[in-house]
Give the backbone structure.
Amino acid sequence: MLNRLKHMDPRIVYLLLAVGVSLPLLRPIGLPLGISPETRQVFDRIESLPEGAKVMLSYDYSAGGIPELDAGVRAMLFHLSKKNAKVVAVASTT
């Protein structure tokens, strides 16, 4: 069995990989996404800000936290920009 896989045409492997990746894109499973109370609270707080409010945002995470935390910070900055908030960013590195 393993010997048979070694001699398989790589194009077949890439075709199977392409099908496996594209199927969920074409027919999503539709898993529900929950919103935590903390996320809802931050969203509501930003929504309640007056137009042009001044906001201080702290980026206190290390380079190892970037993959997990950077998307949330970007979403928050996007939301604040829609409210025309004046953002003061503070960052510290460890």
